[in-house]
Amino acid sequence: MARPTKLGLVFEGAEAEEFLQNENGSVFTSEQLAFFRKAKRIYRAKSK
């Protein structure tokens, strides 16, 4: 199981706003979405 990683980064002011905009504006291609779906199916099949 994956565990969260603590990076120790602290953003303030304009850097924090830019980071949040980049996080909220993520766009994925159809190929990337297909890859995620395939990975999800494989994970579910292996975890049974």
Percentage beta strand: under 5%
Give the overall shape, derived from the CA principal axes. flat
| Uncertain stretches of 5 or more adjacent residues | none
Biggest β-sheet description: none
Annotation field: number of helices: 2
Description:
The protein has 48 residues and is mostly helical. Helices cover 60% and strands 0% of the residues. It contains two helices and no strands. The protein has helices spanning 13-24, 30-46. It is flat and about 45 Å long.
Task: Identify the notable features of this structure and list them briefly.
48 residues, mainly alpha, single chain
Please give a quick description of this structure.
With 48 residues, the protein is mainly α.
How does the SSE layout of this entry go?
Layout: H1 13-24, H2 30-46
